[in-house]
Amino acid sequence: MTCGLRVLLRIRISPGHEAEFEKLWAEHAETVRGFPDNHGQQLLRTRGRPGDYTVLTDWTDEPSFRAFEHSPQQQAYLTRLWAIRAGGEMQLLDVVRGLSPATTSEA
Fold first, then answer.
1. What is the pLDDT of residue 106?
2. What is the phi/psi pair of residue 21, to 5°?
3. CB 59 within 8 A of CB 7
4. Which of 46, 47, 81, 94 is the most buried (most CB within 10 A)?
5. Which stretches does DSSP call E strand in the chain?
6. Measured CA distances, 63 to 4, 5, 22, 59 (Å)
7. What are the residue ranges in the chain where pLDDT is below 50?
8. How remote is the C-alpha of 21 from its chain's centroid?
9. What is the DSSP string of 46-59?
């Protein structure tokens, strides 16, 4: 299966909880990897703004993402996250086209 949906999640973490969040995310990321329709994920931190993060995850499609979102594993994670979260927003993005990096012979 190919990735048809990218989820962009911006999260603001309460001051002083950044290390706790990064550890929590890393632990949960291993769980997310186990979902067959997950095609990768990244945790990004905004430079100069320690509590501002972006999470990117790729999914086969929206139904597979929604199934994950309602899973007991995700609900348990969210319960812990909400205790240290100061705000955020989520966007669902349709993957229109992807391009791999050029190989040495193509560059």
1. 60
2. -65, -45
3. yes
4. 81
5. 5-13, 38-45, 52-59, 85-94
6. 11, 10, 27, 9
7. 1
8. 13
9. -TT-TTEEEEEEEE
